[in-house]
Amino acid sequence: MIHTLTITNLHVSVESKKILHGVNLEMKYGQTHALMGPNGSGKSTLGLVIMGHPGYVVTEGSITLDGDDLLELEPDQRARRGIFIAFQRPMTIPGVKMADFLRHATTNVRRPDRKEGEELIAMRDFRKELKSKMEQLKMDPEFARRYVNDGFSGGEMKRAEILQLAMLQPKFAILDETDSGLDADAVRLASESIAEFGRDKMGLLIITHHDKLLEHNRPDFTHVMLGGRIVETGGAELAKELHANGYDRIRKAHPDADAANRRMLQDDVAAELATA
Amino acid sequence: MSTGMTIDTHEEIGEINKYNFRTESTAVFKARKGLDKDIVSQISEMKNEPQWMREFRLNSLDVFYAKRMPTWGGDIAIDFQDIFYYLKPTDHQGRTWDDVPQEIKDTFDKLGIPQAEKKYLAGVKAQFESEVVYGSLKEDLAKQGVIFVDTDTAVREYPDLVRQYFGTIIPPADNKFAALNSAVWSGGSFIYVPPGVKIEFPLQAYFRINAENMGQFERTLIIVDEGASVHYVEGCTAPMYTSESLHSAVVEVICKRGSRCRYTTIQNWANNIYNLVTKRAVAYQDATMEWVDGNLGSKLTMKYPAVYMMEPGARGEILSIAFSSKGQHQDAGAKLVHAAPHTTGQIISKSISKNGGRSSYRGLVRVEKGSKHARCNVVCDALILDPRSRSDTYPYIEILDQDVTVGHEASVSRIGEEQLFYLMSRGLSEAEASTMIVNGFIEPLVRELPMEYAVEMNRLIQLQMEGSVG
Question: What pTM was estimated for this model as a whole?
Fold first, then answer.
């Protein structure tokens, strides 16, 4: 069976504000999908909702993995089923070493039925695997002893996310702007690493504004989001076009979605001002 | 060495040689509840103490009567007449494993504590079967002139040394509970480290033969002579089971010139205990005193380890952690007194409150006149796990000289939804994720513990966290 992640007519709100207005997307294991779109179109929200972020409410629609409902599962259970997201802004967990965190995570994902307190995967095997994957990512071994994302540079954080992807080997991975805030060399390294660890070995949903990350990860499909919907789907050439020409053509072709997108952006700005 | 001892029930108790009691039938002691001159005299008599100690106790009792209860800290509701002030070791021996509450046994199991140690911790056995381990250790220490005995033994065998220092750092008049301890104390550790002797491994209370370190009113006195060093570890992460509701210890430490002492305590009291402890050290020239203090459980803990830096170059460090849960109040902190120039102090306090628990940091930094170039830094961080729980900070800073540097940072945080989500998105359950965040929070303290304590501490936090979320 080829694993399939299916999103059907997904409507999502946060604090009674509608963000996604009926998203449809089907991904198969081994495929690479690019998800593009202007700011505020709902790309990150889609990623977070697939992972199960508690701040969002699904008001309609479904997300299934091989036909099983994901929406009723907690984030950790989704992770154990093979869903992963590389965060745009990973959280800092002071005092918790990368290696300890990763050993727990890797154990749970590889042994989905593990109960709390049960044994972790063998230290020796784990260390060996971690070390070799860190070498591939050109990471200093010292990195494993640092606290999770504590004092990491932007580049280190993103590489740490890719390391987690490499260790957890999910069925489907969402990469939320893994290229943001990185210089050209770092983006190239990220692109190569994603290709090495992810391409053909999982379904990839790459959220990006640029085409650099897609250089080594030529998308089988490119989706464009606008105003909380996927308004167009094409091949690799669509990603190239959007990168070269921006979203003007898309906005003109979908005036309703464009208007919705502008409203959502204004709401975002208003909300930020209100909390500032 | 068998004798018929009599307690309330007049039942026969087995072997008793712990305090070197005369074994004739005259040594009969009827323990009863309450506190008065007779009880205090009897305790002294039972222990065959010299006259000076007996007088010290009786004077302390007067001080206890005269002193008022503290008007700050937590709510103390103790009926002093409803407490046994002296429980002979045989009382502990008389207890059987079946008497130990199931809850305590379960916790031992979860902590993976060996059966022999479990019984010891539960007060079933008077001594832990560690003599084989301890034998060579003791010999080695003795060769270097190190004294490590329980304090009752010290009073008998090293009277001059004890008398010279006993009660000099914490006089009975210091506070009501120090006075109480001074009147009725029993057990505790006495350590003397001769000049220049550096003990490489931690001295642990449970290695001490004839230990009664789980006593209610233990009295510990440590003297680290010039250039010597010692790390003393007491307590255990297992919950301490006692039938009485008041624990009031006094710990005095003297760090002579160029010496170093670290005193590590991890205590996890049952939820009915008032834990009111006075701990104080003096550090002379270039000496370093470090308190590492972990407080879990109890109904109310009031404990503020202190270092008085008496001469230039002295250093005092206090690392404390408090974990309070339902019905618990941890009023813990630290006290640093800079009484000489070029003295350096540091306080790091971490508290965790969950399930309606309350943690307070109460700290005093005092820089006396004539203490130029004193430096002191205070960091207190509180982590609150749910909206029902509470954390307070009471930092007091008194600076009576100039050219001193005193820093204070405080933070209060809640476990964030985003942190939980991040960890859960990697397959950690909500409980595992919360535990990991809490363990990370206290990592700066746990890192300082001997390995086996660090492991136990982490497991203990895991137990405390079970069922705290969801």
Answer: 0.76
